[in-house]
């Protein structure tokens, strides 16, 4: 059971304050830093670096991507949340890294209200994967767990896939044993090696989707409520009767601080919309990761708080 510090509430996106240096109408007048609270090479990091050159062109300034990993995103997101709300220290973070640390540790001093999203960068539904041909369906795998030891791998004990499996166990009394690994790559490797019977991972373009295309493993179900457009033949757990699971559409977004002046936030959102609509950026992000349409500040903020409320419920808050 996850320990929670407080209920995460929703706030309006449009909070205005005058802070930082320079005239907001002249923003940006300095170089910008985008903090990524996970290691280099992760889906969040790679996709942020794909979008950054376009943002530099749109904003006519240099942007440095700075990895500050640790504490399931807590290190980088703490640094970001304590920075001046002037538009010069941004963050690219997953919803999970934004909301799970304060549910896990009382000492974490940020929550979903500490982020003012300007747009979604990427998304990846949580998917159940098994060795090819070993199970005919997700139902067979989950049913077999009732009479034998079934081990499911997840990319970290506090990851979104782990939260989904916890919800599956709690809501549907599925008798699986969860084993955490470090990231999607190591989790997939454990499946190929036969160390686990199945895995729950995000369907990212860096690891999971290429593995599914390569073969040897197959997707049995997704944990989102609607079929994933890039996995149209893969049923949802919800359609199989495993409903009321935690929020399982992993996504990551660019954000500034809540007190950032509206004029700066609007400038950033406009640049994001241009870049996320660019065909070259879309192609580099890849099908299934790049949102088919731009997801702006308001909708991203709504999704963030929806995820926060869902995870808080699983945590027993």
Automatic annotation (TrEMBL):
Q: Which InterPro entries match?
A: BUG, Bug_dom1
Family classification = Belongs to the UPF0065 (bug) family.
Q: Give the organism the record lists.
A: Georgenia deserti
Q: What is this protein called?
A: Tripartite tricarboxylate transporter substrate binding protein
* PROSITE patterns documented for this protein: PROKAR_LIPOPROTEIN
Question: Where does the sequence pass through the membrane?
Answer: none
Q: Which domain of life is it from?
A: Bacteria
């Amino acid at each position: 059971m996850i320990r929670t510090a407080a209920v995460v509430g929703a706030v309006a996106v449009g909070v205005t304050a005058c802070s930082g240096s320079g005239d907001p109408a002249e923003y940006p007048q300095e170089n910008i830093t985008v903090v990524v609270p996970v290691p280099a090479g992760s889906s969040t990091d790679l996709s942020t670096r794909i979008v950054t050159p376009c943002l530099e062109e749109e904003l006519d300034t240099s942007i440095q991507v700075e990895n500050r990993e640790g504490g399931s995103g807590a290190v980088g997101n703490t640094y970001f949340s304590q920075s001046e709300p002037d538009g010069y220290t941004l963050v690219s973070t997953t919803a999970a890294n934004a909301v799970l640390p304060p549910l896990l540790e009382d000492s974490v001093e940020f929550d979903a209200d500490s982020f003012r999203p300007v747009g979604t960068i990427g998304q990846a539904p949580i998917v159940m994967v098994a060795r090819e041909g070993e199970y005919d369906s997700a139902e067979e795998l989950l049913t077999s767990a009732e009479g034998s030891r079934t081990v499911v791998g997840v990319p970290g004990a506090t990851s979104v896939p782990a939260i989904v499996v916890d919800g599956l166990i709690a809501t549907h009394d599925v008798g699986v044993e969860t084993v955490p690994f470090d990231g999607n790559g190591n989790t997939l490797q454990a499946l190929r090696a036969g160390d686990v019977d199945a895995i729950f991972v995000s369907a990212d373009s860096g690891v999971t989707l290429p593995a599914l295309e390569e073969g040897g493993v197959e997707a049995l179900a997704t944990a989102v409520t609607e079929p994933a457009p890039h996995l149209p033949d893969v049923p949802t757990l919800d359609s199989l009767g495993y409903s009321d699971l935690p929020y399982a559409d992993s996504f990551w977004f660019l954000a500034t601080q809540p007190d950032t002046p509206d004029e700066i936030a609007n400038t950033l959102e406009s640049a994001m919309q241009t870049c996320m609509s660019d065909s070259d950026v879309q192609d580099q992000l890849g099908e299934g990761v790049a949102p088919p349409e731009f997801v702006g500040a308001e909708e991203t903020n709504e999704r963030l708080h929806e995820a926060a409320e869902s995870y808080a419920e699983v945590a027993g808050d």
